[in-house]
Fold this protein.
Amino acid sequence: MNTIKSIEEHFSIIKDPRINRTKKHKLIDIIIIALCSMMCGMKGWEEIELFAKAHIDWFKTFLELPNGIPSHDTFYRVFSRINNKEFNQAMLRWVEELNLNVEGEVVAIDGKTLRGSFDTATGKGALHMVSAWTEGTNLVLGQVPVESKKNEITSIPILLRMLNLKGAIVTIDAIGCQKEIVNIIREEKDADYVLALKKNQPTLYNEVEDLFKLAERNKDYYITDIASSVDKGHGRIEQRTCTCIELPDQLDYIAQGWKDLTAVVKIHAIREKKEKVEEQTRYFISSLPCNAKQIAHSVRTHWGIEYSDF
């Protein structure tokens, strides 16, 4: 009950967008049901409605529910109209009160367009959010709304500065591979980073790619650690090899301007499904010690969140 009171206190700042004569459900009931459902893995308003109906007896132990469980249309209408800034402020204050310890955990920064958030009636565009997810609790530490995916790069620093990330491993896709973002993670947040590297940073990308080509000819000197894994399922076999190189002193020019860049990483994946074989190579930079197993785990955790749907 203390948790419910805490949620009610923090989320009371949200103004109800509905007119009085249309209200069948309390706003706080709608919010609490949505929070509980999403933390249990529900994706989309229909799943939230089904989850709530299946657990209505439990919800009734702490919610009034004067007209039962709201429909998925009600969840959609309410959340498409409440003030995003008010909701984010309430969410952040509540998560801060939980005092989550993220030390040693992966915190994935990722942008997503919320499924079902496009309002055809009003023409309101789909809601795109940049979110910070914690590995251990699968909770959102914070969110920043953005106009579209191309605006993520300006929102990521704002989101990072909102959060307590001490001791965490922050993962971001290639759009977040920026020196300003690295400085925030290391200097302001006392956290580590594993950042995807693509050709939006052409100089660094080419230097890292060339280093791994050189390492293939001189493994004893350059390769620091390797970890491999195999996943099988749904008629598919995927083999992944994570190779880490700890940058030697004579190659410190690669790390120039990138705060505490310690290791460069190559992940090579081979996917086999029926008779089709696909190969993919991705590069990353990290402030972590050159531990291939740890870095591979961080990347896989990020991919799990990046490819999830909600």
